[in-house]
Amino acid sequence: MKTLYVVGLGPGNLDMIPVRNLKILQNISPLYLRTERHPAANELEEQGIDFTSFDDCYEQHQTFENVYETIVDKLFASLAHHKEIVYSVPGHPFVAEATVKIIKERAAKENIELIIAPAMSCLDAIYNVLGLDPTSGILIKDALSLESNDLLLETGLLITQLYNRQTASDVKLSLMEVYPEEHQVTLVQGASIPGLEQIKTIPLYELDRVHWIDHLTSLYVTPLTITQVSGQYDLNKFIKIM
64-79 and 98-109 helices cross at what angle (nearest 10)? Predict the structure, then answer.
């Protein structure tokens, strides 16, 4: 049976990668990275660990769905020529990683042994830097699939992968359908990554004016109370949303 390892890189540098994961990266090849736009990629190169990234797939296709399918096709094509391969992704393999879901389904159909090596996710890093307890209730959404009708205004909202200012602008417009424009939101870039971490709290209407928003940036939106909503907003609209 052939084996496909899916290894989490964690949210930052090599210090944040579990020992087991690092051993897999060092000892099994070929190694593929979904993207080398990750703080650990340069350190892997410095350690002499060879890898191939799939960043070119993002330039060749118009939709993320096509990108993900292409990456998975390339992985399984490689597996046809090797007994085992490694596919590494930022953070935790099951957190905001569409390719891993596709891989899991296909591996089951093709009788491929799938070994998942978990790591700290970007969510864990954000909880840490903002002092959030997810058991108290946090709604998590991807910036690219945010819908205002899906939001729970009395629950903290964490939006991952803002990517760029255009995405931030789209998110701002969706949020301003249900939150006051002065509502305080917090941007987090490079959570827990030494030298990259930035935290900035601003009013919602300024969201897309921040120049350093990138693929390592997430947004936390504090919850509203009924009093806030009824005082600044149409309570009937709030109830409808809830």
Answer: 40
Q: Tell me the torsion sign for CA atoms 189, 190, 191, 192.
A: negative
pLDDT digits (tens, 9 = 90+) for 151-196: 999 999 999 989 899 999 999 999 999 999 999 999 999 998 888 8
Tens digits of per-residue pLDDT, 4-15? 999 999 998 888
DSSP labels, 87-144: EEESB-TTSS-HHHHHHHHHHHHTT-EEEEE----HHHHHHHHHT--GGG-EEEEEGG
CA distances from 160 to 121, 140, 214, 230 (A): 11, 8, 11, 28
What is the token pair recorded at 93?
């393999």
The answer to whether 40 touches 26, Cβ cutoff 8 Å, is no
Handedness of CA 60, 64, 66, 69 (dihedral sign): positive
For the cut 90, the answer to whether the pLDDT of residue 131 exceeds it is: yes
CA atoms within 13 A on the CB side of 131: 1
The CB-side HSE value for 166 (13 A sphere, CA atoms) comes to 1
pLDDT at res. 234: 53
pTM for this prediction: 0.85
- Partners of 3 in beta bridges: 84, 113
